[in-house]
Every structure is written in C-alpha cells, then in structure tokens.
Amino acid sequence: MSEKKTRRPKLIEALIPVIFLTLLISINVFVFGDASLDGSNQIVLILSATVAGIVALRLGFRWTDLQKGIVKSISNAMAAILILLLIGSLAGTWLLSGIVPSMIYYGLQVLNPTIFLVAACIVSSIVSLVTGSSWSTVATLGVALLGIGQALGIPVGMVGGAIISGAYFGDKMSPLSDTTNLAPAMAGTDLFTHIKYLAWTTIPSITITLIIFALIGLGRGGETVQEDIIPVLDAINNTFNITPWLFLVPAVVITLITQKVPALPALLIGTLLGGLFAIIFQPHIIEHVSGVTDNFTLASYVAVMKAMYSDISVSTDHEMVNSLLQTGGMRGMLNTVWLIISAMIFGGVMESTGLLKRITESIIKLAHSTGSLVATTAVTCMFFNVTASDQYLSIVVPGRMFADTFRKRGLTPQNLSRTLEDGGTVTSVLVPWNTCGATQSSVLGVPTLVFLPFSFFNIISPFMTMIFAYFNIKISRIKDEKEKENPNVVSQ
Predict the structure, then answer these.
(1) Do residues 242 and 96 share a domain?
(2) 181 and 84 in contact (C-beta within 8 Å)?
(3) Contact 165/453 with Cβ under 8 angstroms?
(4) What is d(CA 402, CA 413) in angstroms, rounded to the nearest whole number?
(5) HSE (side-chain half, CA atoms, 13 Å) at 166
(6) Digit-coded pLDDT (tens) for 216-258
(7) Statement to judge: residues 148 and 173 lie in one domain
(8) Residue at 165 is within a domain
(9) CA quadruple 79, 82, 85, 89: dihedral, nearest 10
(10) Which class for 193: exposed (0-12), middle (13-18), buried (19 or more C-beta within 10 A)?
(11) Contact 330, 309 (CB under 8 A)
(12) Residue 414, exposed/middle/buried by CB under 10 A (0-12, 13-18, 19+)?
C-alpha cells in the first residue's frame, strides 16, 4: 500500500497559522486584558493548531500524521510539566514553613537610603527569586518601594526601572518561575542545566545594572526608610517564627542540585522538608491554615496537604504583606500546564508537517554564524512580544521554530533556552500593549515608556546574549558535551 504523497509548503502557507495566531492573540489581549492568560490564549493556540492542520491537509498530510505529531510534542514536555507541578507544591510548603517569609524579612533589611536604587533592585531580586513571580513582586513589594522612593524624591521612572530590573532578574533565574520552566521545555533541555547556563549572561547583565543604579544614586541622601520598613518587618516577625534555621531547607535543595541529583527528586525532597519544618517551627500557622485546633496531628496533615495542592494564604495586620503570603500549590500551576499543552498541540502540528521548518529556512538564510543565529532568535522573541503581546508565546513559538536549527548547527539546547529567556522573558515588560507591560504599568501607576529607559537589566539582557554568541563565549556545543560524557572516547 503506497503512502500518500505530500508537497513542500510555500512560505505564505507556512505563515498563515502564525499570522492567525498573532492576530487572534492581539484581539484577545484587547478584549480580555490580563484575563487572556486565564484560558482564552490557550484556546487561540488550539484554534491556530486547527488552522495549521487545515493547511497541512491541503499539503497531503493525514489526520493520523497530525495526531502523532501532537502526541510526540506533548510527550516531550511531560518532564517540564511534572517539575512545574512539584514546584507549585514546594512553593506552598516553603510559605507554610516560613522559609519564604524569612527570606523576605532578611532581604528587606538590605535597604539603605543612600543606595536606594541598588537596594530596591536587590530586594526585588531576592523576593522574585524566592517566589518565582515578577508580577507578585511588583504588585506587592514594588508598590511599597515606589512609595518610599517617591518620599525620598527619586523620580518614579528610576524607581520603577530598579524594581522591574530586580523583579525580572529573580523571575528569570528562579526555578519556581513558569517562564524559567517553559524555556527549557521548548528548547529540549532540563531546568537546572538551563539555569546554570543562563547565569553566564544574566549575572553580568544584573551586575552592570547595579553599577548603573549605584552611579545614578551616588551622592543621593535622604531620610532613613527604616520607619517605612518596620511595619512590614513587624508584620512578618509577629506572624511567623523567623529563624536562620529555616534556610537549611533551601541549602539542602541547592546541595542536591549541585550534586547533580535529578530535578524531580530534589524538588520533592525540598517540598517534604518544607512541610516538616512547618510542623516544627510554625505550629500556629499549621492551625491557621488547616482550621483544626484540637488535634495537631490532623492539623499538620491537612495544612501540609493543602499547601502542596491548593491555594493557601497567611493573614497579618499588614495588607501588603498579606498579598505576598499566598500561593496556589499544584493547582496554581494548572493554567501554565494548560498553556504548555496547548502550545505543544500548535507546535506539534507545525513541526510534524514541515510548516515550522519552512519558516525557519527562510529566517535562517539571514543567519550565517552562531552570533547571527542567536541574534535572529532573540529578535524573533522580541518580535512576538510586540506582535503577539504575550511573553509565553515569545518563548513558545521561537522555541519550536529554532530548536532543530540549533541542533543541526551543533549547538546544545541550552544555547536556545538561554536566548529565549534573554530575548523573550525580560523584554515583554517593555512593550506597553504586552500583557506584562500593561500589567506592571497599571500596578505601579507608572507609564511603561517612563520606566522603560531605566529598566537596564531588561534592555541589556538581549544584547548580552548576542555579544556572548558573536564572541563565542560560553557557547556549548554538542560535540564538546559528548566528549565530557565519554572522556575515554578520543578522536584518532
């Protein structure tokens, strides 16, 4: 029985699903605003996959071909999905145990009025790093820092830029962040390899950012901000048992990661230790979250279980602190899981039918070197931030487009995942109509174009990844990795 013949797509045919996706996402953002992340964008991805399927059928493909492509694509993302769910549980038990509140408590004390911009950037980095969310950091601590900065007479654009820079550094480097999980999933590498490789461009970018803020703030005095911070510190200290012993848990997890323990068991151990430390150090929080006051064993079971799978929050006498002390557990990750699956459906159809390959071939003609390939990828990420108005799509679509090309050029997947983060994640907030730019502007009450010139980390990051590529700095190659894995195999 002869196989059905297929033909090579024309460029315009390959672009039809991408154009449809871009237009519908733009309409989505206009109609639903921030709520477009609650499901409508996922539906758009599925509808775009349908359009891609129709194009593929006209090219001679069968439904079974499309289904195999979709299943294969989703299966490639399963490891990332499992990690994402475990990270939701870890965030829950680390809040319940007081680990995250302790990090915020000690981090806030870094504030110093003479280096306020640097301090604001550092504190935002710490909070975003431990929470994995730039949005919650900006919406809570960022608002407080903006008010303090204004009281010191610092322009709101500068303060906003410092907050945004720190928040997106933490978001970009945190294993709790959805984008930090999404990028390696799209590129085909693992979470911790991605983070370690990402550090090479991210640390220089944040270092330059802090130097710039230090120079801007040089000579700026001002009244002490301790009186503004004291209510926040008191609210945390009066609610949780704050102690350095709690840092044993993240220390264990970091040690496991450095010893190359796989991500899933390392995160599971961190989650369970978080629950154990909650029982030891925060018995009153256990009772508060569980609602059980007459049986501590039962209360412990209920509270830890809730922290792992569901929404929990801890109330204090400070409204801003209350906004920080809440998490969604595994359930809070389901929207991102839904997005990944929907993106994999779209990517599976586009990839298995050669539509992505056709688009990539046209773009790759412009990239004759590793530097130009990375630059083209980063610019494509920024293009999707502007046109599709969503940071997730700026990672998903270019990730699927360029994965095969990076591999054929002999570059390991972490090169691509790093570029996706440097070009996609951090530039989303610089676009006024992007969901990130619109949200942060609204939350801070500062127009995007006002804080944009001072969001140095976000501006520097894509250029940093290009510079590394053009000068061949820390560019991991498949050949080199294979030699590391098999040191006894030498070329004759």
Answers:
(1) yes
(2) yes
(3) no
(4) 10
(5) 29
(6) 887 665 444 566 678 888 888 999 999 999 999 988 987 886 6
(7) yes
(8) yes
(9) -110
(10) middle
(11) yes
(12) buried
Q: Quick one: 490 exposed, middle or buried, by C-beta within 10 A (0-12, 13-18, 19+)?
A: exposed
- Are residue 65 and residue 197 in the same domain, yes or no? no
Q: Which amino acid is present at 236? A: I
Average pLDDT rounded to a whole number, residues 461-489: 81
Assign 491 a pLDDT band (cuts: 50, 70, 90).
very low
- In angstroms, the CA 195 to CA 184 distance is 9
Question: What does the pLDDT look like over 259-295, one tens digit per residue?
Answer: 778 878 988 999 999 999 999 999 999 999 999 999 9
SS3 of residue 354 by DSSP: coil
Partner residues linked to 313 by β-bridges: 326
Same domain? For 298 and 382 the reply is: no
Closest residue by Cα to residue 124 from 95, 159, 153: 159
Identify the domain boundary among 267, 301, 331.
331
Domain assignment of residue 151, yes or no: yes
Residues 432 and 320: their CA atoms lie apart, in Å, by 25
Mean pLDDT of 306-326: 86
Same domain, 159 and 307: yes
Structural domains of the chain, count: 2
pTM of the model: 0.72
Residue 418 has pLDDT above 50, yes or no: yes
User: Is the domain of 383 the same as that of 472?
Assistant: yes
One-letter identity of residue 74: I
User: In sequence order, which ranges of 424-492 are alpha helices (DSSP H)?
Assistant: 435-444, 448-451, 456-470, 478-485
Apex CA 160: angle with CA 156 and CA 165, to 5°?
A: 155
Q: For residue range 183-212, what is the model confidence (pLDDT) as tens digits?
A: 998 898 888 899 999 999 999 999 999 999
Mean pLDDT of the chain: 86
Quick check: helix, strand or coil at residue 151?
helix
Distance, CA of 397 to CA of 14 (rounded, Å): 13
**Could you give the CA distance from residue 206 to residue 186 in angstroms, rounded to a whole number?**
25
In a domain, 256, yes or no: yes
Domain of residue 350 covers 11-70+333-476
Residues 154 and 289 placed together within one structural domain of the fold: yes
Question: Do 274 and 327 sit in the same domain of this protein?
Answer: yes
**Does 94 map to a domain?**
yes
Last residue of a domain, one of 265, 296, 331: 331
What span, in angstroms and rounded, lies between the C-alpha atoms of 221 and 461?
30
Residues 6+ apart with CB under 8 A from 47: 20, 24
What is the three-state SS of 228-286? HHHHHHHHHHHHCCCCHHHHHHHHHHHHHHHCCCCHHHHHHHHHHHHHHHHHHHCHHHH
